Amino acid sequence: MRENSRKYTLLLIVAVLFIVNIFLLRLDWQNSHRSLTFAMLDVGQGDALFIESPSGTQVMFDGGPARKVLGSLQKIMSPFDRSIDAIFITNPDADHIGGLIDILKNYEVSAVFSSGTTSDSRTFQNLKEEIKKQDIPYVLVKKGMRLDMGSDVFIDILFPDRDVSMWTTNDGSIVARMTYGNTSIMLTGDAPTKAEQIIIKNNLLENTETQLKSTILKVGHHGSRTSSSSSFVKAISPEYAFISAGKDNKYGHPHADVLNIFNQLGVKILRTDLLGTVIMKSDGKKEVFEF
Q1: Are residues 72 and 11 in the same domain?
Q2: Each residue's pLDDT tens digit in the chain (291 positions)?
Q3: Residue 140's beta-bridge partner residues?
Q4: Which of 1, 24, 42, 237 has the most CB atoms within 10 Å of its CB?
Q5: Can you give the residue range of the structural domain that contains 14?
């Protein structure tokens, strides 16, 4: 009787191990065939962008205003996933960094990247204190830097190209371009036309104008007419314009003049104030959108 019981137990263990092995292999296969995920989160009047490469590397560009981002993040991240590889502070205004404090208190963050612009606001000071408290590396970005997210996903810094510590928060905003195969995304923060023209000039001088062309343009400053000059949009030549803005916001974002530029150039416009969170997934060849 005991011998039969031992045989049964052994067979049960082997069966369980076999099932677990199949499950792990299936997970591994799924992970190796994952897509690039780019999500413009619905955080009201602000910016919060989530990016995950097929390798699983995750970064955030901004975190929107306080008490807005966590709910949106939980809809696209596994509840068992409590880490984010890096966050980018494109500028230290409250509508970009308020939610980053919430993220730092709920997720393990490996690095923080900033343009170097500063603010005297309590929100920014609290964010700096939290970063220091957790001893997270704080890196100033500059044109020419490249972040390798694995699986041939790269983020290239286009601006700032100089010390912007004394510039206004918007003027010194980070501008970066992410690429994955045929899919490319221009990330502009709140960069105004001043920064746009510097980027265009740099690319003309370096004879790399084609490197600005992108599938998606994350529209600068929530669609304000201080950004998205006609010359910049033409240089980017996007198929899609992503606009993060709050519903019925008091600023009138996105501005009619900006929308007209996109409409005249045949650019498809996707807005959080109308659609909520906008998610793009790409296999490096084509894009699929979810709302």
Answers
A1: no
A2: 555 555 555 555 544 444 444 444 444 434 444 899 999 999 999 999 999 999 999 999 999 999 999 999 999 999 999 999 999 999 999 999 999 999 999 999 999 999 999 999 999 999 999 999 999 999 999 999 999 999 999 999 999 999 999 999 999 999 999 999 999 999 999 999 999 999 999 998 887 656 899 999 999 999 999 999 999 999 999 999 999 999 999 999 999 999 999 999 999 999 999 999 999 999 999 999 998
A3: 114
A4: 42
A5: 1-33
